[in-house]
Amino acid sequence: MRQHLWSPIFRGGLLYSEGATVRQGCLAYHLRSEILRRGCTVFEDTLVQRATEVEVGFLRQTPSGDLKATNVVLATNVALAGLPSLRPNVKSFSSYACMSRNVPEAVETHAWRGAAGAADLV
């Protein structure tokens, strides 16, 4: 952990090397903007009644009709972890970060390397 982030108050931690800290609101806003800019249609708040993997991708059945796509992005929230059938396979956790502006000297002081999220777990 210390090779990625050093802090005199961290006593131990867990590093998810494949993860990163993401501002979900900004990601969603810019992803939606880019999709619309490219002329695609965005279906928001659509109830998916059935999801099936088919030979050429995915089939999503909704009250208004079926959607076939090669790739699908499924955006959910923490409620997914409350479903008994999914609970063993979904782990929800939270992180709290507050930054008003970039502070390069603070990042350098703590030797933070990369964008992986970190937490003091002890």
Automatic annotation (TrEMBL):
Pfam families: DAO. Residues 7-107 form the FAD dependent oxidoreductase domain. Keywords: Oxidoreductase. GO terms for molecular function: oxidoreductase activity. SUPFAM superfamilies: FAD/NAD(P)-binding domain. This is FAD-dependent oxidoreductase.
